[in-house]
């Protein structure tokens, strides 16, 4: 099994469920506290490229930081670089957990999605 990097917030129940699920599958995890040590702009750029997702999927749109910064009304005017900088500067703005093995990326936690992405990853190597 490859080691997975998990950007997570320890108090977040979704993150705890994701970590528990991944550990139950036998994954070795490198946990990174997303509020204290958010991914850098470079890391986010790589995560975005590997995820195949739109950048907006990386935002925790139901979070307090998103609302406090009034991003709902500002997102359309922001450049990709500005959005990446916001995520890098405000860890709690990131939808979490973000899980990566360096090639594949998942954002958030849905068991079906994890089963597809993170089950038997060693057999694909």
TrEMBL record:
InterPro entries found in the cross-reference section: Arsenate_reductase-like (IPR006660), Thioredoxin-like_sf (IPR036249), Tscrpt_reg_Spx/MgsR (IPR006504)
PROSITE patterns from the UniProt entry: ARSC (PS51353)
Source species, domain of life: Bacteria
Family from the record: Belongs to the ArsC family.
Annotated protein name in UniProt: Arsenate reductase
Organism name: Paenibacillus etheri
């Amino acid at each position: 099994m490859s080691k997975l990097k998990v950007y997570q917030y320890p108090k977040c129940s979704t993150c705890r469920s994701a970590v528990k699920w991944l550990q139950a599958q036998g994954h070795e995890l490198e946990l990174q506290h997303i509020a204290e040590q958010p991914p850098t702009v470079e890391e986010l750029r790589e995560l975005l490229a590997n995820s195949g997702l739109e950048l907006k999927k990386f935002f925790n749109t139901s979070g307090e930081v998103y609302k406090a910064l009034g991003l709902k009304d500002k997102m359309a005017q922001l450049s990709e670089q500005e959005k990446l900088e916001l995520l890098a500067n405000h860890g709690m703005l990131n939808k979490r957990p973000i899980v990566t093995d360096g090639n594949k990326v998942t954002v958030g936690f849905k068991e079906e999605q994890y089963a597809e992405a993170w089950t038997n990853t060693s057999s694909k190597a």
